[in-house]
Amino acid sequence: MHLIQVDSVQRWMEDLKLMTDCECMCILQSKPISIEKDEQNELILSSQYSPCDNLQLLLKRAWIISTELTRIAQKLEKNRWQRVHSMTVRVNCHVRSMVNEYNTFTRSSSEEMNQLEKLLIDKCSEFTAFTERCLQTEDEETLKSMKSCVNETLTTVAQYFGQLIELVLTHEAQNLLRQIELSGSLYVTESAISSLFSLAQEGAHLCRIIAKEGGVVALFKICRQDCFRCLYPQTLRTLASICCVEEGMHQLEKVDGILCLADILTDSSHSEATHAEAAAVIAQITSPHLTFTQHLSSFLENMEEIVTALVKLCQEASSGEVFLLASAALANITFFDTMACEILLQLNAMKILLAACSDKRIVDTPYSRDQVVTILANMSVLDQCASEITQGNGVQLLMEMLFEKSSSGNPAEVAACERVQQKSAVTLARLSRDPEVAEAAIKLSCIPRLIKLCRSPTERNNSDSVLVACLAALRRLAAMSPAGLEDSDFQQLVKPRLVDSFLLCTNMEESFV
């Protein structure tokens, strides 16, 4: 399950309540303190937690149980019976707590769920008793024969637990979708969409459950009703999360989701926030990392309208976040279909993107520059692109991108900087087939910078992909102006085969003592 990475002490503090609850459950044997269980306990919980909080508590508890089961298997492998038994007791308590907590905040549960809860609790009790007997057994041969039974019981507990969690999450998704579909109340619908978004953030498995239960259909239904216009941004954000899985994409295709997104993007009466979130959905469904976009046949039918609207959104973006979403969608579309590059050229997109890069308020992060240089790299295969680049001072921008460095040291930002360096070098290599571009690059001292990136691993953050791109760009520029290189650079970086130069540069990283 998806959990936000946090400091270990903070994680311990968050888990402390659950752990102390677990100890209480050991002592009280799962019996409620209050006699009036249905009234008082329910009142206390409902006053303290919202349905979304309750679901998060359930997911947290489920994550702890899943982790404990994995650790039990590891300790069992090492025959550490004392630890196996103590952890089994703990899992037993956590399972009972989870079932009690869920039954307290849920208003309805199916017969199937009740049966599964009973099976899981009974099997956990059996598991605890079994490990206790193992703890009291000293004969090694007997322990060996019992170990296979313990493993089998552990597998059954994990199986029942997985089935119960799947059923619970499906039940919760169904409840939320029922609220979205049947409620005419703006407040109830907004609350349900918010809870659905939180659920989708827990990972791909949750997104699959939501998609299978008709989540994409229900959300697009909201996006087609004017009375819910104020909920469009939130609804589209949830759709973008769900459409990261194949089931979500299939549902999107079935309900003509592409046409709906195109209508939203081209409707000027919608807010910028709505347009930005629609762009985010487009960016998600056209991601080059997904392997299941081939069935989006309707996208090609609406591509020109969508690309035109996204270019306009880039041009009129009031913030870096809006520009990032719109440019990310455009960047992905240029991978999705080559016709998009020709449309962008006709729309003077190159000029708009290059102008945006000079505005530090709009293009303010390596992530935004990564999207811009991706579009430039994909457009650079077109012959007409070279003149557009030179007229818009694009070569100067590409040169600046070769110096891209992370200011924070954050791994994601460092990776973005590497991509910017690599793609700017690739773009230079492609565009330098045009003598005018090559001449401009040489005048801006691109050759010395490319040489430094090749020879200094720290300048490229030890990235092999940046190295290969720089070697390719250097060789293309050297062919246009061989006088710009010293003999040693020519002999090592240009004259040999590319693979030999690559190996020479990567070996510079090694240090022999």
State the secondary-structure class: mainly alpha
> Which range does the strand content fall in?
under 5%
- Give me the strand/helix succession: HHHHHHHHHHHHHHHHHHHHHHHHHH
CATH topology grouping of one domain: Four Helix Bundle (Hemerythrin (Met), subunit A)
User: How many β-strand stretches?
Assistant: 0
Full CATH superfamily name of one domain: Nucleotidyltransferases  domain 2
Pick out the low-confidence regions. 1-5, 20-49
Q: How many helices does DSSP assign?
A: 26
Major sheet attributes: none
Shape type: flat
Please, what is the oligomeric state? single chain
| CATH first level of one domain | Mainly Alpha
Architecture per CATH nomenclature, i.e. the level-2 architecture of one domain = Up-down Bundle
The end-to-end span amounts to 45 Å
Radius of gyration: 29 Å
Summarize the structure in short.
With 513 residues, the chain is mainly alpha-helical. It contains 26 helices and no strands. The model is unreliable at 1-5 and 20-49 (pLDDT under 50).
How would you describe this structure to a colleague?
Among the domains are: 119 residues, Four Helix Bundle (Hemerythrin (Met), subunit A), CATH 1.20.120; 89 residues. The two termini are 45 Å apart. It is flat. By secondary structure, the protein is mainly α. Helix 3 packs antiparallel against helix 6 and helix 18 packs parallel to helix 21. The chain is built from 26 helices and no strands.
